[in-house]
Write a structure and sequence with these properties.
Chain B: Pfam families: FecR, FecR_C. The complex is a heterodimer of chains A (208) and B (390). Chain A is mainly alpha-helical and 208 residues long. Chain A has eleven helices and no strands. The chains are: A mainly alpha (208), B alpha+beta (390).
Chain lengths: 208, 390
């Protein structure tokens, strides 16, 4: 998985050429990272999202003026935290603290990518339809839990719900999907996975 | 083991750490636990896979929604309007709906002179369950648009659409003695569909294909017509052979599993038998196939081969591309599934074979990037055209 610092090429492509795909790649990456940091630091989830979009709107509109920025990662992180905490400046100590942010847990793991690739079209479509049918807030909680890997406690606090509600909402979504898989002909999932473990070993050997 | 007990595992952070491989100690602990409780492994594996896919799907949805918001704000901002060109935005919003995840390597290459692949490609989403049903009276029903449930009634025979890209002919409420009327199902480029015929035969239609069949079989044979590619699981009926007419040949069976590929733009018509036995007839010439054999026909000449990988043949039906062929062969398959036109700006080597396997649910860029990885060709995507370049 790429880290933010690896997105230098994308950053330059966007700043110098206004490349939209690069802009999207940067957005998607930092969306994960900032949502993770925001919630970890106890900020409200909705506000975190607004700050992310405020920042990227600014960057989009001012790209010609941003060509002097050499460390895009630090620039983005600092700007984001300023917005999130409504602060113009941070003291030297605070800044040190800020840059000492946790790296995100590694995702998507090599395994996720492989599972995605080896999941049949049928299952992928069923899953996509299912996710689209969830309420938006339900889908956000699942993103925060099963993609960003945040704790139930952190998720509850930043979404202004109780831990019990956070847990139940996520549990219900999993249970419903489980039922669908049990009923339909998606039962092949587990067979695919054991085959996968073998494949992964194989790939790690070649590309690792 | 109760479902509930298994599902409750998701309450434990250590279990989730194991699922997402975030913490070595937890991975070790849960692996040990599984070793002691082997009966739980299958359930746990399935749960783990579900969680990974759910997390990933929810991410795609959330980021797409948030990005759409941002795009909206940019569009409505005075400064933004000056910079934005509408066509670029259209393409972009399509790209935004699907996240481009880079792939580690799905295809196994014969040649392994790895070079850095072209880092960015525009993208095209994969095909899906799309088809049009044409009823006996000529009425057309768009199956991707129609809701689930009974969608038509053909002289008492119910046509039922189910959620997973399938229609079923239901005879249970009819005493249909008369000859069935003919229906046709057509898939576009980028479409696939399954039909369960009135006799219980199951047919999977690949992209850009069509099947014409009676809503009810009577008389002494069951006859259908195929163009493009279809996989058949024929319900056994003694004394009433099942016949598939396609591209000038007829395949005759009693009950068996086989695949026919008869696209107009493929030089060869291939009939592959997985189970049972079939007879292929072209005029008065007959060829019998045994399980595991494939008949390749060019014009009226048929050659039968024994060493065909069955998995290659039915990969499409199981949601994969499985390649073992030249670049042009691969690109023909890709063009059908993604609905794109392929334009060659460079000569390709027909003797260079690529082999590999990848899900048909991925975006086109995932496949093209891996082919590029081989270093011989590059791709450029412009709308629905894919350019093959040096």
């Amino acid at each position: 998985m790429k880290k933010g610092k690896d997105l230098k090429t994308e950053w330059e492509k966007f700043i110098l050429e206004g490349n939209n795909t690069s802009f999207y790649d940067i957005y998607a990456h930092y969306h994960d990272y900032f949502t993770y940091i925001g919630i970890k630091k106890g900020a409200n989830a909705e506000k975190t999202k607004d700050c992310i979009n405020d920042l990227f709107l600014y960057i989009y509109e001012n790209r010609e003026n941003l060509s002097h920025i050499t460390n895009h990662h630090n620039y983005l992180v600092t700007s984001f935290l300023r917005k999130l905490f409504r602060r113009e400046h941070f003291s030297a100590e605070e800044s040190l603290d800020l840059y000492d942010l946790e790296e995100m847990p590694v995702y998507p793991s090599v395994e996720t990518l492989h599972i995605k690739q080896h999941t049949s079209n049928q299952v992928t479509l069923t899953l996509k339809n299912y996710i689209d049918k969830l309420s938006e807030s339900q889908s956000r909680l699942i993103y925060q839990k099963f993609y960003l890997g945040l704790s139930y406690d952190d998720i509850a606090a930043s979404n202004n719900i109780t831990v019990k509600t956070a847990y139940n909402t996520i549990y219900n979504a999993v249970e419903k999907l489980k039922k669908m898989i049990g009923e339909g002909d998606l039962g092949t999932l587990s067979i695919a996975i054991s085959l996968l473990s073998l494949l992964i070993l194989f790939f790690l050997k070649i590309y690792g | 083991m109760g479902d509930q007990e298994n599902l409750q595992l998701i309450q434990q952070e250590s279990f989730l750490n194991y699922c997402f491989k975030r913490n070595d100690q937890d991975v070790k602990d849960w692996e040990e636990w599984l070793a002691q409780n082997p009966d739980r492994r299958q359930e746990v594996d399935q749960l783990r896979q579900m969680l990974l896919l759910m997390g990933d799907g929810s991410r795609t949805r959330t980021i797409s929604a948030d990005f759409a918001d941002l795009q909206n704000r940019i569009n409505h901002s005075a400064r933004g309007l000056k910079v934005i060109r509408s066509s670029a935005w259209l393409k972009w919003s399509i790209a935004a709906s699907i996240l481009v995840l880079f792939s580690v390597g799905i295809l196994f290459y014969i040649a392994q002179n790895a070079k850095t692949a072209n880092p960015k490609l525009a993208d095209v989403a994969p095909g899906g369950n799309k088809a049009t049903l044409i009823l006996a009276n000529g009425k057309k029903i768009d199956l991707s648009g129609a809701g689930n449930g009974a969608i038509a009634n053909e002289t008492g025979i119910k046509v039922i659409k189910t959620a997973e890209g399938k229609i079923i002919y239901d005879l249970s409420n009819t005493t249909a003695a008369a000859n069935g009327q003919y229906n046709t199902i057509e898939t576009p480029m980028g479409g696939q569909y399954q039909v369960n015929l009135a006799d219980g035969t199951k047919v999977w239609l690949n992209a850009a294909s069509s099947l014409r069949y009676p809503t009810h079989f009577s008389g002494n044979e069951r006859k259908v017509e195929l163009t493009g590619e279809g996989y058949f699981e024929v319900a056994h009926q003694k004394n009433m052979p099942f016949k598939v007419a396609s591209a000038g040949q007829t395949v005759e069976v009693l009950g068996t599993h086989f695949n026919i590929m008869a696209y107009h733009n493929e030089p060869v018509v291939k009939t592959t038998l997985l189970q049972g036995s079939v007879r292929i007839s072209i005029g008065k010439q007959h060829t019998l196939l045994k399980p595991g054999q494939q008949a390749a026909r060019i014009g009226s000449k048929i050659s039968v081969s024994d060493d065909v990988d069955m998995e290659d043949v039915v990969a499409w039906k199981n949601g994969y591309f499985k390649f073992n062929e030249s670049l042009e062969g691969i690109m023909t398959k890709i063009s059908r599934w993604y609905g794109v036109e392929v334009v060659y700006e460079t000569k390709t080597d027909p003797n260079l074979t690529y082999s590999g396997k990848i899900s048909r649910g991925r975006n086109i860029s995932a496949i093209l990037k891996i082919i590029e990885f081989n270093g011989d060709v590059h791709f450029r995507i412009d709308g629905h055209k894919v350019y093959v370049t040096k």
